[in-house]
Amino acid sequence: MAGKSNKGRNRRGSNNAATNSSESVVSSNASNKESKDNLSASEPIKDDANGVPVAVESTDTQPEVKEVEPENSASQTKQGDLHLFPVSVKTQSSEKLELQLNPGDSVMDIRQFLLDAPETCFFTCYDLLLHTKDGSTHHLEDFNEISEVADITSGGCSLEMVPALYDDRSIRAHVYRTRELLSLSTLHASVSTSLALQHEMAQNKATSPGDTTKTDVLELDGLGFMEDVTGSLGNLLSSSLKEIKCVESIVFSSFNPPPSYRRLVGDLIYLDVVTLEGNKFCITGTTKMFYVNSSTGNTLDPRPSKTNFEATTLVGLLQKISSKFKKAFREVLERRASSHPFENVQSLLPPNSWLGLYPVPDHKRDAARAEDALILSYGSELIGMQRDWNEELQSCREFPHTNPQERILRDRALYKVTSDFVDAAVSGAIGVINRCIPPINPTDPECFHMYVHNNIFFSFAVDGDLEQLSKKCVSDNKLKNVSNDSLPEKAFSGSLHGDSGLPNGEKCDRSCTGEHNSVTELAPDASAEAPSAETEQATYASANNDLKGTKAYQEADVPGLYNLAMAIIDYRGHRVVAQSVLPGILQGDKSESLLYGSVDNGKKINWNEDFHLKVVEAAKRLHLKEHTVHDGSGNVFKLAAPVECKGIVGSDDRHYLLDLMRVTPRDANYTGPGSRFCILRPELITAFCQAKATERSKTKSTSQGDAHTASNSPNVDGEIQDITKEENTEDVQECASAPAESFESQEGILFNPNIFTEFKLAGNHEEIAADEENVRKASSYLTDVVLPKFIQDLCTLEVSPMDGQTLTEALHAHGINVRYIGKVADGTRHLPHLWDLCSSEIVVRSAKHIFKAVLRDTEDHDLGPAISHFFNCFFGSCSAVASKVSANSVQSRTPKKDQMGHQSPGKHSRGQARWKGGASARKNQSSYMNISSESLWLDIQEFARVKYQFELPEHVRTQIKKISVIRNLCQKVGITIAARRYDLNSTAPFQTSDVLNLQPVVKHSVPVCSEAKDLVETGKVQLAEGMLSEAYTLFSEAFSILQQVTGPMHREVANCCRYLAMVLYHAGDMAGAIMQQHKELIINERCLGLDHPDTAHSYGNMALFYHGLNQTELALRHMSRALLLLSLSSGPDHPDVAATFINVAMMYQDIGKMNTALRYLQEALKKNERLLGEEHIQTAVCYHALAIAFNCMGAFKLSHQASPFLESKIRLHRPSLHVMGAKWGV
């Protein structure tokens, strides 16, 4: 919301700021994405390394930038026309606040602010009255916008909070809110804030806060983190805030519910309260107030007590009956008010922490916590109607969006609804996996159960090795209306065709097996011998692809074409797909509602002209071609989407497009069995089309289409040069033969999504051949251009991922599927840190799938032992626990055996074992007990060979960076372990007590704000051109819009803060840069994780800014934290660690501690020479820094020895230095 309060603006100054994730603090290009844009933040460190103090260099400021206050960026916004106007608020306690409101703000926005303000945070049940200057009074409804009621732009308007009547729901919400306020558990203090506070306290205690104080803390344990990564695990987590106890307990009384005769006079609830003084009170909550009744013992006495304490809020009553409560509650509010506003905001789906506090905190009695836990709602509303997620989502999509303000309101509504849906879906999926929610088809096999809870459909992504079971069920005619990928639509199609001529067996055969088997029409026998590892991957891939396809069509945003809300939840080895309910599916609507696509793998295709026109419009935006296909009877249909998609008209008369597993074409490099869902990424399609469009424009501008001109293209860097040299003739021929209308549009090349599939294509052979050639060229572009360019960027540090997550994001951003990671590893063997990163990611991904199979086959009471045993086998040297059990029970986990088709059709596979009904039907002995270190690593190596075409060396088991691999695996499967020192050289380093939690891992389709994204992209261009004032305005506008759409806790908001900090830094406003960095760091810690590489780089950037303010001691504290985080995510051997060492050395050098500076510089030089080689530019930077350090020490001889080597490196890298100099102004 745009509203702000004028109170609480003054904080602790710059010391209260924390870092922002300007991803490249270090002199290497540390970010795996947008690295070029972030280099401008890292270069000042290089200037500092050259001996020029940052503060001195930054004196050239631009006044127009410095005058803009970051805090008031919302008022500067132009795109949304967000002009703010002052409106006073009279609270229930007769205090007055002043808000800055925009006419487009809703009443819900005002309520949310009042809920966050310290003066009004405990008021929950009230009406808002708007008084205008003409004397009229308006009652505000929650969903109204202020502009709909009155014009606040003319001034003289005020708001008044008037107590409203409680009801059963609102009074319970009031009690929960009061409990929440009394706890500081929702206050998430940034570690940077703690560092600043510690520094401030040290400065206050010191009599002369100069070098003496600094000397005591300057010898930071930066190198120590590198030497003992395991021992530093406990340093990651900050100790939780000390709770301020306000009351002993507030619980619902056992007098509840009120007797009927008391209900008639307004009693709603009874509470038992024990104050800090030890007094016990029984409190009555009525429709109007709370008061202390006269009850004692076991008999209710509803009469007010003799003291006659009463108040309209529970907090107000507690302040009257307890002086200690009043004092403690004031401290709580002061603590919240003194913290950064972002630290009080809750984040959507916070990242799972892979480390938990050690020693484990004592679990103490808490009656309120027990009450909440015993109410098993699994995300649904306890009182009132359940939310209709689909109707909410589609109604929001139908909001007008013709102007910027309307688009902001629409995006905000979509974000809110989708976020709430994902939150409810996660809770429901946990209930489904824990068997707490009954299925709607209990007579079917458990693996095919469907669940409806809280108006959400839940279905399991079923493994391919359940094929035999499904075929048996088909023969028995037991399975009806079943689907693997998207249960709502499949269940709908089942009821839709229930009375048609299509046999149930055919429907079930397709539903149970067709979607996940490879090219069943072309190779009918392939499915019987399909490897279970691959078919499991196909199942997981189909769910992933469906989610990506849903996102793509949502972003295409075609009017009249709708998609369901969707989320994927991985928990305890299971994958659950959650979707909003398709209107009409639960009512058994059997009308002809399937208008488009096929439900039986193309045997029968439905088609509707109106639906087709909408799909064609979306296809143009997704680079999909309108094409013709045959159905099973030979009829020809014109489609613009995959054959297996389903266009359905719901009972709400909306057109829904479902089953979007292939919205991009097949990868022509993967056409064998089990590769049905190996499709190209949309980023690659976009890059390929841009490359071809640029090539065509260059060809047309010259008479002979000189291929060398393509190298000047600004859009595709050097990628066009290769493709024009090798394929120019083919491309020109393709342009001539393709339909003219395909290239007249700006979308460029269009792809047939049904190429290289089992579906029968219509049309002439030339057209089909041209479509196939298009897909082949795109696939070749991936392997011949994009992949080599990506490997080159990795080698030159243009892209510098730190861990598996950032490596995956870098691959995806370049349009490369993770299945190509083996080729990336092969291309980076000469650089140890890259080869280690790629091979470790392959190891973790292979182990993850084996581990999920173990979890699926493990009983609830064995989860802890199973996890610890698996980890001991993985990281230690552990033998099987139960050697007497036949090894046949775990052979199905070996991809090699599955690949060769050795599994007997009559045996239960790992997928079937997890689904056996009751405990009596399950195995007496868990299969995890049969795993040993040898067998596990053999399985991992075989899985890597099959899945990633990568041969893991025999010594990989001993050479992996164990802490980084543990972190990566825990994050991928949702495990939390104790943050203690582990002896990873022992045979069994883990104990069952070390496993603290198992959490769900979520993928979702929460929409992004395209408006803000475009502003950020434009701002980055302005920043690169040195237009700081214009860039600041654009980033401020994007920040303001995102604040309104997503709230502050979002990764894109952090990006805006990062760029704002960059602009302010280059403009010389260090305090402003620190302020923005603090915001960005808080967001990164909350949204990405405490040890995410972006968070580490944020600490490094914050150190840079503090150093610019000559607060070197505080800067070094932040650098120490950055080194700790880097040691956990990447390990000690990474160029970014070496670059951070250089930055630390320069800071030591500036305060005269040359010996310490030299120690860090020498360590950085060793790392760069070992990791990058003596000829790399980063090695030259180390020599240059050493030369300056020796010169400062007076060691001119050593300085001159380093200089010739540097000069040779400069000559070698002169072109690169010219480019960097032009970009950074060096």
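Second entry:
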Amino acid sequence: MIAEPNAASSLPSQKENAVRDETVPESAVQNSRSVRNGNLKTTREKRKVREQSENIRKNSSSSRRVRRLQNGAVVEAVTLFEVVIMGKRAMQSVVDDWVEAYKQDRNVALLDLINFFIQCSGCQGMVTAEMFQSTHKNDVMQKMTETFDEESGLQYKKFMAFPWILTVTWPVDMDGEDYPLIRTGSYWKKFRANFCEFIAVLVQQCQCSILYDSYLMDAIISLLTGLADSMIRAFRHTSTLAAMKLLTAVVGVHLNLDVNKHNAQRLYEVEKNRISGKRTNYRLDQLERKGKEYEQKLLEIQNMMNAIFKGTFLSRYRDVIPEIRATCMEEIGSLINTYPDTYLNDSYLKYIGWMLYDKQPEVRLKCLLGLQGIYSRKELVYKMDLFTSRFKDRIVSMPLDKDHEVAVQAMKLLMLMSQNCEDVLSDEDCETLYQLVYTTHRPLAVAAGEFLYKRLLSYEGDEEVVPKEGGKSGANAHQLKRLIHFFLDSEVHKHVAYLIDSLWDWAGTFLKDWECMTTLLLKNDGGDREALNDAHKSALTEIILATVREAAEGHPPAGRGAAKKHLDALLREVKDIVVKHSDMSVLEASSRTYYILCSEEIAIYNQVDRARTQLIDELTGQLNQLLDGFWQKEEGFCTDAGEISRMYAALRRLAAFHNAHDLTKWNLYHKTLRLLVFEMEHGSLSVLMILPALQCTYFSLLWQVAAAAENSSKGALLALRRELRRFSEICMYFLTHKEKDVREKAFVILCDWLLILSHQDSNNNEEAVGLLDYLPSTSLQEKLLLFVQEHIFVEEKEESKDLTKEEERKDESCKLDDLNKKRSLLAAYCKLIVFNVVETTAAAEIYKHYVKAYNDFGDIIKETLSRTRHNNRIESARALILCLQQLFQTCAESQDGSTGVDLASASFTNMKELARRFSLTFGWDQVKSRESVAMIHKEGIEFAFQGATGTDGKCFPPNLSFLLIISEFSYKLLKPDKKIVYAYLQRYTVEPLPYSRDEWQPLIWYKNSLLANEDEESSVLGSLGEWSQMGTSKASSCKRKLSNGSLPEASHAEAASQDPALQSASQLASAAGKSRKRLKSRETNLQEHLPFLCPGGLQRSKDEINTEDVLMERQAGDKSEDADVDVIDGDQKS
């Protein structure tokens, strides 16, 4: 009996629905089901119903739910239908869960499966079920109806799914042609594949257990058979597909059982021969029982196969819906190929033969594809004699089918029949098929060409006619003669190009043997039997011309193939686009099209090159005409807006093509250069003319440099060198142009130009490299840097205006575009720094804006710092300390120099924050950054004591506060290096201090930051505590402020009191892993960069340099998350 499930188990929760609605289409969301129990007679049955109702949720939830990730979120499927919708990655697990649920309560699990098939049909209605307990068959048959209730507007279908009677209720609009199997789009194509996969996996997982319980398969087959008889298309189509896939899966089980049965029989025979006849053997009895078990299962499987075939296939292979007929034909063809022992007979083949006459091409196509699989196997062909004799004429006529795909597949089928069936095709049949090489549909013509080549021209399998003399040339000569005879006999002399095109893919070897062709053509017919007559020579001449044209042009003859793929039409279309449009993206796409088609490796190069040359001639002609009119005017001044627009369009078209094509022979360089020189002298050109002229001149010089680097005389190289210098001066002039777009274009071109000239690949032409190599002068580097300072890092003042929402949106869009341009400009300049075109110290000006402009340019600056550090660690560190020194000097100049730098000022706080960020970029590996950090301290100490008279302290160092800046790098020093740096610092100081202790507080702090042991660090904290109680303005300098874009930071005094456990375990593990040999190997290097080392330097005992020396002493105020953000050293590991 079937229990009535409660509402909680049948309806998903609101939360689950919310997740599901985002995963599957709304049309896929199905309503709940309700199951009605009927004809309960006894108290025991009612009690069982109540028990089942209480256990519904826990028994069915596992079979109906599966979790999977989609876009980072967990999606919970509630029904089998939703599992199939989501995909088949969870198919195996959900089927396993369903099998387990079936073993616990087969009624509930089976109802889930029944509801699954109903939902896959697109039904949004309700399924109810009642047990079949009537003993009167006629009463049951009367209930098998499909009716329509006019009052409720619902349709009902009641049918048998033994042992149940199912009733499906759905709205009347279900008749609409909209259900999952016919919906378009990749989503629903995947659903069809997943649906078929689910059925295959279900049968596979059930074949070892519940498949033979005489309950599951009976119910499923009854269900699908009942739905297949419905008047509703969705039910018929879905159930037919499910039934045929079920049949295919069951046939696979049958094949496995058959193999197991034969293996068991063989083992039985071996065991029987091994033992004597008098003794009984347990192994023998076991094998005998196993064999009988396999026979019983095979019988059951055979009954299932017959039931599905008779119940579904026989009633649906002539369905009015072509998709259903095509499904039946596809599966019957697959069954015959998979299990020919049962299905390869006339009882099943006749259905394929009959449907060859179907009115719908997709049905005919499925029949042909199924027959191809059969005729391709020689071991099966002998069983096809009756079918072949009965339907051969129909198949021979199908290459003339109105549907192109059907015609092509029919031709391929006839090719297989010709190869594997002896004398199945008559000469008349072959002559008819040969003529198809002249058809206009190229795929059919190529298939017919294969048939003609293998049937008439080649010697495959026909060794008796293979010429024994002449070798390969003799074989090609005989093939050519056969081809000539066929061409003359076909009497289609004007279509030799079609014939050659059809044979080209199959007979290309002998069709390209022009030596053999000319030999045949030149033979005299006097006494030579192999000589050709005049008609044959004329035909051979036409064949030679057609083969040469096919090899040179590489495209089908006129009229064969789609017009849009014809090369001439394509080139005309592209040319029209270029002439009509001036948008740069369109022009660049057209230029790339010509570039791809102009590859010298393909046969169409000559034709495309001619078209490209013709186009460039027209474009340059237009430009020359406009320029002539332009220079004829007084002083060349152009005021006509229309003329400017035409000049602008012509220059843009040529610039777009000059980017990918070498247009040097059109001499565009001198024409565009004259425009730029005129602008320098008069300054009256429109910006619309300057920009494309500048771009075109740049491309012209690049093509000249590329050509000169390969092979040029010294005089040509010197002349080109002068032009390079001249163009650089022009770009320098335009850096200060009044128009912003011109300035930016000149800057980008100049940066790329310098990068290319400084990194030339001359193909071992050292002379060309020496003459054309160009590094920027000091004045040019200064101008580039000045451009960066004035146009990239300058903040634009925002004016408060009352704007509408649309105006605000446009304003934000303009700001975003402006920011993108600035980022491109900065990236172009930073490339010069990274590739050593300009000095590395130029990066100091960029690094100044690391914190303030972090949101806009932080990633570019960080990448620049990383690349320069990879190139040269010392020079990169020198740029950092130079940046800090320049900022300190600027800060000091802006304040009263008599009192020194105000440690509480926002500018000084920002400097310390920048120094802290710089220190974080060195990463965790102190050994790698050892020399760099030491150099920073050395340069910083020397800068801090500039202006002092010496160690006697007669003059107070004005830059002493800079020691607070470089103290941010102290924790990056190894302990031995801290002592060395401390000793170097002592050279600049005397004890006791000659001035007030307050003035020397930066020195005190810096000294204590270099002390190695914890006691000395405690003294630092104590001195800082005393310093913080003083009433001077310097007392607040240890606290970081959020001012002028700087980031907030806790004071050193507050940070020092934090738990030292803030140091991460990964830091300690990484530092402890540094070997002593690694420390020792860098001591020599460090000596070179630290000339201030005390005698003995790093010559310490091995006991003194231990693992503890490598542990990093982080300042307590530096947060670990900041380090994760700012560490940029590519080869350092945290």
